[in-house]
Design a protein that fits this description.
The protein is an alpha/beta fold and 400 residues long. It has 14 helices and 17 strands. Helices cover 34% and strands 16% of the residues. Helix 3 links the parallel strand 5 and strand 6 (109-111). The protein is elongated, with a radius of gyration of 22 Å.
Length: 400
C-alpha cells in the first residue's frame, strides 16, 4: 500500500477522503475526535504545497441535501484546528464544488458538502456509483484515502474513486492498519478482548473469529444479558436477543473446547427502566447478583464485583482490544463499569487498543487522557470487520 510519501503533491489537487462523521447537536459538534484525527494528514499535504480538497460523509441523509447533516460546522472546526480558513463548497460535484476547487492555491484547504447528499455515493448500483466517482475524479489529480471509519463501505468516494486516480493511504489509515496487524498477525500474549455495546448480533462475526485468537474474552453492555440468559440466568427486563441464544451457547461451548476464558458479569447495576440520557436526571439504581435478578428490573451496567473481576483479567494482559461500553455510560449512574474498564486498560502494561465508536466517545466523555492508550481507533465498524478477517473495500482499493 502506497503512502503519501510516494506521491508528488506540490501544486496538485489532492482529494482526501476523510472520516469527519462527528456527532452534532444543532450546529454544535459534541465530539471533534475524528476531525482532530484527520488534521495531521491534511496539514502535511498542505505544507507540501498541495491544493487539498477534503471530503466526507456525515450521518445518514437520504441521498439528497438535508441541512441537519451539513458539514458546514465541520468546515469551521477544521479551519480552527488547521489555523487557516477552510473554503466550503455547498455541493459535492456542482458549481460550488468546481468554483471552490478552482480557487484553491498551494497549501490551501477546502471541504466539500456531505457526500451522501448525492445518491451515487452509497448506491448499490455499480453504474450509478461509478458515475458519481467519475464526477468526483474531475475535481482532483491525486487521491489520498484517510477515512478509516468508512473503509468497510463499498461507496463511491471510498472504493470507486481511488481506482480512477493515482492513490495512496494517508497517515491515519497507515497507522490504523499497522495497529490492527498487532491484533491479528503479531499478537503479544495474553491477549484479552473486551466487547460491549447493545446487541450481541452486532459482534457475532468478531466473536467467532476471536475464539481462535484471544486468550480471554470479557463481555459487558446490553449484549451480556443474552450470554447470561444462555447460561440459564434470569435477566428481568434487560435487553435480550432470544433469537441468538443458541448461537451464544455454541460460542460458550466452543470457548471451553479451545481453552478460551469467557468472562461474564457476576453482578449488575439495574433500575426499573431506561434512564433519560438528555436530562440525565438522577435515577434509583440498585446492584443485583446475576443469580438473583428481579423480574421487574433492567440491567444497565456491570456491577462493582464485576468491575473488580474485569480489571483483574486485564492486569496481566500483554495486548487488549476494547470495543463497546459496559453500560449506559452516557448517564452518570451507569458509567462506572465503562470507567473501570478504561482505567483497567491504563493500569495494565498491555498494548491497548480502543476500537472506536462508543468506546472512543466514552474515553473522551469520562475525561480520560486519550494519549495514555496505545491507540484509539477512528472506526469501530471497520476495526471489527478487519478483526473478522473480512476484505475491506476501501483498503483493497488502496492496495492496487
Amino acid at each position: 500500500m502506497r503512502t503519501i510519501d510516494d506521491l508528488r503533491v506540490a501544486g496538485q489537487r489532492v482529494f482526501v477522503r476523510a472520516d469527519l462523521n462527528v456527532p452534532l447537536s444543532g450546529d454544535t459538534i459534541t465530539d471533534d475526535g475524528r476531525i482532530r484525527a484527520a488534521v495531521p494528514t491534511i496539514s502535511r499535504l498542505a505544507e507540501a504545497g498541495a491544493r487539498v480538497l477534503v471530503a466526507s460523509h456525515l450521518g445518514r441523509p437520504k441521498g439528497a441535501p438535508d441541512p441537519a447533516y451539513s458539514l458546514a460546522p465541520v468546515a469551521r472546526r477544521l479551519g480552527e484546528l488547521l489555523g487557516q480558513d477552510v473554503a466550503f463548497a455547498t455541493d459535492t460535484v456542482g458549481p460550488s464544488a468546481r468554483e471552490t476547487v478552482a480557487g484553491l492555491g498551494e497549501g490551501q484547504v477546502a471541504l466539500l458538502e456531505n457526500l451522501r447528499f448525492n445518491p451515487g455515493e452509497t448506491s448499490k448500483d455499480d453504474a450509478e456509483r461509478a458515475a458519481f466517482a467519475e464526477e468526483l475524479a474531475t475535481l482532483a489529480d491525486l487521491y489520498v484515502g484517510d477515512g478509516f471509519g468508512a473503509v468497510h463501505r463499498k461507496h463511491a468516494s471510498v472504493y470507486d474513486l481511488p481506482q480512477r486516480l493515482p492513490h495512496a493511504a494517508g497517515g491515519l489509515i497507515a497507522t490504523e492498519v499497522g495497529v490492527l496487524r498487532q491484533l491479528t498477525d503479531e499478537v503479544k500474549r495474553p491477549y484479552a478482548v473486551v466487547l460491549g455495546g447493545a446487541k450481541v448480533s452486532d459482534k457475532l462475526g468478531v466473536i467467532e473469529h476471536l475464539l481462535t485468537r484471544a486468550d480471554r474474552i470479557l463481555i459487558g453492555g446490553g449484549m451480556a444479558y443474552t450470554f447470561l440468559k444462555a447460561q440459564g440466568h434470569e435477566v428481568g427486563s434487560s435487553l435480550l436477543q432470544e433469537d441468538q441464544l443458541d448461537t451464544v451457547r455454541g460460542y460458550l461451548d466452543r470457548a471451553r473446547e479451545l481453552g478460551v476464558e469467557f468472562v461474564l458479569p457476576v453482578d449488575v447495576v439495574a433500575a426499573p427502566g431506561f434512564p433519560d440520557l438528555v436530562a440525565k436526571t438522577p435515577t434509583s439504581p440498585t446492584t443485583v447478583s446475576v443469580d438473583d435478578f428481579p423480574a421487574d428490573l433492567m440491567g444497565l451496567d456491570i456491577g462493582p464485583r464485576s468491575c473488580e473481576l474485569y480489571v483483574s483479567k486485564l492486569a496481566d494482559a500483554a495486548t487488549v482490544f476494547w470495543n463497546g461500553p459496559m453500560g449506559v455510560f452516557e448517564h452518570p449512574d451507569y458509567a462506572e463499569g465503562t470507567r473501570a474498564v478504561a482505567q483497567g486498560l491504563l493500569d495494565s502494561s498491555a498494548f491497548t487498543v480502543v476500537g472506536g465508536g462508543d468506546s472512543a466517545a466514552a474515553v473522551r466523555q469520562l475525561k480520560f487522557d486519550e494519549n495514555a492508550f496505545g491507540h484509539i481507533s477512528t472506526g469501530g465498524g471497520a476495526s471489527l470487520e478487519y478483526l473478522e478477517g473480512k476484505t475491506l473495500p476501501g483498503l483493497a482499493a488502496l492496495e492496487d
